[in-house]
Amino acid sequence: QRVFGARHARLYGGFETVHRLFVDIHRQDGEQAAVKEERRFWDSLAEHINIVAENEEGMSEPRWVVADEGAGGIQLHVQEGEYGLPIYVGRLVAYNSKESEFAASRLGYVVRLQRIGDDEVEVAIARIRGEILPVVVVEQDSMEQLPLPALMIRAKDGKLQLLCDNKYSFITGDRLAVMFAGHRHSAALGEALIAQADFSIFELHTSA
Q: Do 200 and 153 contact (CB within 8 A), yes or no?
């Protein structure tokens, strides 16, 4: 059921989409006008049921209704069949409110899907806290030496973590070169802190 005056959110799903979002957030200030224009399509896709079809008021309806939000995450309500992107427990996502700039986006993952009516679903998302930095990593012991996207997380205590797409099959002990903003650091993956369907988060130990 649509609620007049309800708060609405944008939801970005999947590793590639989320990584692209944080790359855009960290682009130089002089590029922000260009970034906003480039992001119009992706932000509309994250917000609306259908970015082509329009209702009588000339606008597609917002998809995600904010039911509750706190420091630990957010709960969204959505009409069944209006997801627009795959949603399942363990899915990596980013979210922000319709009224916010995309730079205010927060990182998280789906922890619960629950039917709350005949045609409405509640999506509970746990927030991944810390400063989120898009990086490129290279597995140092690999023959191919391919650059791979990842997200580095700097926790409040200053410790570093690395969020990786599970398709890369990283494990504890892997030695990586981590590149961000023109700097390259040698690092090793420590204990896996979170392991979900799409992604894993490891402790990241960098060389002094």
A: no
Cα separations in angstroms, 178 against 2, 45, 128: 45, 31, 20
Conformational region of residue 50, where left means phi above 0, alpha means psi within -120 to 50, and beta covers everything else: beta
- Nearest 10 degrees: Cα torsion 105, 106, 108, 110: -50
CA dihedral (198, 90, 22, 206) positive or negative:
negative
Whole-number Å distance between alpha carbons of 155 and 22: 16
On the CB side of 26, how many CA atoms lie within 13 Å of its CA?
15
**Distance separating alpha carbons of residues 96 and 105, to the nearest angstrom:** 5
Pairwise CA distance, residues 70 & 92, whole Å:
18
Assess whether pLDDT exceeds 90 at residue 152. Answer: yes
pTM of the model as a whole: 0.83
